[in-house]
UniProtKB/TrEMBL annotation:
The keyword Zinc applies. InterPro entries: Aldolase_TIM, BKACE. GO terms for molecular function: 3-keto-5-aminohexanoate cleavage activity; metal ion binding. Gene3D superfamilies: Aldolase class I (3.20.20.70). It comes from the Bacteria. Keywords: Metal-binding, Transferase, Zinc. It comes from Kitasatospora camelliae. Its cofactor is Zn(2+). It holds the Pfam family BKACE. This is 3-keto-5-aminohexanoate cleavage protein.
Length: 351
């Protein structure tokens, strides 16, 4: 992204889209005071986050036994109810479905490709499904401290090891098929990226015509194979992101607020919720709603407006797809592909 002299002035920045992730699939009941269990509680969590200022909802579903649901019927039911309860929110399904271990000592594994592909068949369909690009380690506890995990199920050695040793399976065999299925169903992919290498893979998908649509993505700074918390890495990722992309900052635990504060100041968007963080000040619990309210407060202090639901859908380009590679490159503000025999650095075409 390019920053002009006036790019940091809040009146020139997009209104802030706050993404809420209030369903915490890695946690068990009792780990956080606001983990929804019943379907009514799932819906109420969305309503509460929306009323606090969130306009994008990252969705997982929990069974009554407290474990993350893998039943697509549960997702169908929840999406249907959310369409009625929060019609202005962007509904985003977590593409892992659930990566929680089945029991104590079991591995924390993502589901099979075939099962994850079935997210394109949800009815009613969501606005987005998150998608990871390139297989990597996903050690979500690597940069968590003992204080972060105090009093939670993941503090147990067997659960800690399960999450420490987790891998995210997202190679070409998966993402090529998944992108096509989402396109066929009119569902927007929301790219979950952590490194420049992953961003470059997505750019190659765009330049080769495999993906033709809006580039809506999260920078995922949770460590353990994903990005860490170094501000320079965040700044470089922002710099390398195309001007026409939509970028949201995602971090973990008590680093969420400072990382998001940087993102808000830069004109990016933010994600909060108990899936990412349980804490405010050290030792003090913080609910998903309180985290949304905190982002509203930070944005207000910087003079940045909060997007309404309708504005969030416009910023996210919900429902848009492009006709081919050239239009996609142009809409994203990227320079065109090199023509045969063309030398030198590429410039955008002037007509």
């Amino acid at each position: 992204m390019h920053f002009l002299d006036d790019s940091l002035l809040p009146e020139n920045q997009e209104k802030l889209v706050i993404q809420a992730a209030p369903y915490g699939p890695e946690w068990l009941p009792g780990d956080a005071p606001d983990l929804p269990l019943t379907m009514d509680e799932h819906v109420q969590a969305a309503v509460d986050c929306y009323n606090a200022g969130a306009t994008v909802l990252h969705i997982h579903v929990r069974e009554l036994d407290g474990k993350g649901s893998k039943r697509l019927s549960m997702f169908n039911e929840l999406v249907g109810r959310l369409r009625q309860a929060v019609p202005d929110m962007v509904l985003q399904i977590g593409g892992s479905i659930s990566f929680a271990p089945e029991g104590e000592g079991a591995d924390a594994e993502w589901l099979s490709y075939d099962t994850r592909h079935m997210l394109a068949e949800l009815d009613p369909k969501p606005d987005q499904v998150t998608i990871a690009i390139n297989t990597s380690q996903m050690n979500i506890v690597e940069i968590m401290t003992a204080d972060d995990l105090e009093g939670t199920s993941i503090a147990k050695p067997e659960y800690y090891r399960a999450y420490r040793d987790m891998y995210l399976e997202a190679g070409p065999e998966f993402y090529l098929e998944h992108l096509q299925r989402l396109r066929d169903k009119g569902i927007q992919p929301h790219f979950q990226l952590a490194t420049i290498a992953q961003l470059e893979t997505v750019e190659r998908l765009i330049r080769s015509g495999v993906y033709t649509g809006p580039l809506v993505l999260n920078y995922v700074a949770i460590g353990g194979g994903f990005a860490g918390r170094h501000p320079a890495d965040l700044i470089e990722f922002v710099r390398r992101t195309p001007d026409g992309a939509v970028l949201t900052i995602e971090s973990s635990m008590r680093a969420v607020a400072p990382m998001n504060a940087i993102g808000i100041a830069l004109g990016c968007h933010v994600r909060v919720g108990n899936e990412d963080n349980l804490w405010g000040r050290k030792g003090e619990r913080m609910t998903s709603v309180q985290q949304v309210e905190q982002m509203v407060t930070i944005a207000d202090a910087l003079g940045r407006d909060i997007a309404t639901g309708a504005e969030a859908k416009e910023i996210y380009h919900i429902g848009e797809y492009y006709t081919g590679t050239e239009e996609t490159l142009a809409r994203l503000g990227m320079v065109p592909n090199r023509r045969p025999g063309q030398r030198g650095f590429m410039l955008r075409d002037v007509k």
